[in-house]
Design brief:
binds 7,8-dihydrobiopterin, 5-stranded mixed beta sheet, 13 helices, 45% helix, alpha/beta, Phenylalanine Hydroxylase, globular, binds fe (iii) ion, two-stranded parallel sheet
């Protein structure tokens, strides 16, 4: 759960010199506390993910120099990743403007936040840090299908922005790359980085009776708002990572025409046309609304 602030305005502190917003990871400047936070999060997720995360993620994690002892060095990570799919990991200060983000993806560079959350905010953060970005996103970039899909998303993002339909495309990203579930055999597995990097949401997304789990449908997802401040009310499920390859090949232009101006759905809505895998009780968010 992070997101949404779309980068800093020019002149605000933190804006880097480089037009592509990249900075040096400055690996030597991480403190023992920083590496300790990494270890805590790494160990928690490594206990939770086997049997819950998709096979491609597990395999990618095993192949990369990502371990419990220290925050990964982006240079070593990029070498290993580059040999497999041609992707690299570059350091950025946090969220970057959309067009900068898309341009990196379109060129098979994954922009990763170089900072790590503080020990007192282990479970919640607003901007993607190195744990979310590297532990959550990078393992799947070893998968050729996912690697091509994310590049296509970058290219599609630049196009969507010029057509004024970026919010619709951003929902596809949200409900797949960040919070996607995938069917594996008869079971549901996690592939979204926002889930895979969150202990609470790993369990909530798969095992809690509260959220809906609905078969992924592109136009439906493009019209569905999402929550940025809490667990999702609905998770969308693809049949396999190959579905993403098909997504990358679809011509979105006619779909954008239909979706533009069409009614939008709330995060918890269930439609008569949905293929519902689990109808959630909604109990979790109902309780939160009462408190608010
Ligand atoms: N910047 N570093 C970073 N990470 C993101 O995930 C990100 C971003 N900028 C914009 C953005 N995501 C989204 O708004 C787009 O996917 C639409
Ligand atoms: Fe992310």
């Amino acid at each position: 759960m992070e997101k949404v602030k779309h980068g800093l305005a020019a002149g605000e502190p933190g804006r880097p010199e480089n037009p592509d917003w990249t900075i040096d990871q400055n690996w030597d400047s991480y403190t023992a506390v920083d590496h300790g936070v990494w270890r805590t999060l790494y160990e928690r997720q490594s206990r939770l993910l086997p049997g819950r995360v998709c096979a491609e993620f597990q395999r990618g994690m095993a192949e990369l120099p990502i371990g419990p002892d220290e925050i990964p060095d982006f240079r070593r990570l990029s070498e290993a990743l580059g040999r497999r799919t041609g992707w690299s990991v570059v350091a950025v200060p946090g969220l970057v403007p959309d067009e900068v983000f898309f341009d990196h993806l379109a060129n098979r560079r994954f922009p990763a936040g170089h900072f790590i959350r503080r020990p007192e905010e282990l479970d919640y953060l607003e901007e993607p840090d190195v744990f979310h970005d590297v532990f959550g996103h990078v393992p799947l970039l070893t998968d050729p299908v996912f690697a091509d899909f994310l590049q296509a998303y970058g290219l599609g993002g630049l196009r969507a922005q010029s057509m004024g339909v970026l919010p619709n495309l951003a929902r596809v990203y949200w409900y797949t790359v960040e919070f996607g579930l995938v069917r594996e055999g008869g079971d549901l597995r996690i592939f979204g980085a926002g889930i895979a990097s969150s202990g609470g949401e790993t369990l909530f997304s798969l095992e809690d009776p509260s959220p809906n789990r609905i078969a992924f449908d592109l136009e439906r997802v493009m019209r569905t708002r999402y929550r940025i401040d809490d667990y999702q009310e609905t998770y969308f499920v693809i049949e396999g990572l190959d579905d993403l390859l098909a997504l990358a090949e679809i011509d979105f232009a006619p779909i954008y025409e239909r979706v533009r101006g069409a009614a939008e759905y709330e995060p918890g809505d269930i439609l008569p046309t949905d293929r519902v895998l689990t109808r959630g009780t909604g109990a979790y968010h109902a309780a939160r609304r009462k408190v608010a």
